[in-house]
Amino acid sequence: MKTEIRELLEKVRNQEISVEEAELILKKAPFEDLGYAKVDFHRNLRQGEPEVIYGAGKTAEQMIGIVEAMKQRRVSPILITRLSEEKAKLIAEAHEDLTFFSHAKIGVVGEVPEPDGLGSVVVCTGGTSDIPVAEEAAITAEVYGNRVERLYDVGVAGLHRLLPHLETIMQAKVIIAIAGMEGALASVVGGMADCPVIAVPTSVGYGAAFDGLAALLSMMNSCASGVSVVNIDNGFGAGYMANMINHMS
């Protein structure tokens, strides 16, 4: 959308179209009411990225319709989060350009652009069990044009696994630190990096982890400066925020 607006303004400046014609184009409805959803076509202009489809709770038929409406307005790529394999198969029958990442429960319709961010986004996890959330974050960042480096299973239970990657951590533009249990990884990484660290607590852990609440509170109480926290298991939110930071000029 940003590119389209810029091209439109260039045409006005070059007198290829009139001011009135440009005004008419901009007055087009900013959303389409499908009955079950109001698809927001101006979100890219306001926030920098198009609307994302949250798959949980939606039927495959509803998502097929939303994708079709977005395609008609030349939105690409289209991101679908929390997408089940069963619904992904049905959507793929209508939209063959869907790529489904089962581990992350993410669907991407259209081609992923080449990275154009300022630097790299590093996604690290405390353990292997955190990888599904990490992949949601990593793929989200990649879909929006970021180069992503993955450091998985580098938690504090074996700190020596993280130390060989100090150069990668120190050169990152943004770091996403994902951990369950007590969530200590975010503080450790935050104490090593000079860039923003986005902490993601996961619902991994035994009883007193309270489905990620312990990690959430631990990360919110981090003594490392520059650490912010998103909600439990919210890999998408972390990937989106990392993208915004990595594209700030």
TrEMBL record:
Single GO biological process annotation from the record: 'de novo' IMP biosynthetic process
SUPFAM superfamilies documented for this protein:
N5-CAIR mutase (phosphoribosylaminoimidazole carboxylase, PurE) (SSF52255)
Q: Name one Pfam family in it.
A: AIRC
Q: Which residues form the PurE domain?
A: 119-249
Provide any one GO MF term from the record.
Answer: hydrolase activity
The UniProt entry, under InterPro entries, shows:
P2CMN_synthase_LarB, PurE_dom
NCBIfam families the UniProt entry points to = LarB
Q: What protein name is recorded for this chain?
A: 1-(5-phosphoribosyl)-5-amino-4-imidazole-carboxylate carboxylase
Q: Which species is listed as the source?
A: Agathobacter ruminis
Q: Give the lineage.
A: Bacteria, Bacillati, Bacillota, Clostridia, Lachnospirales
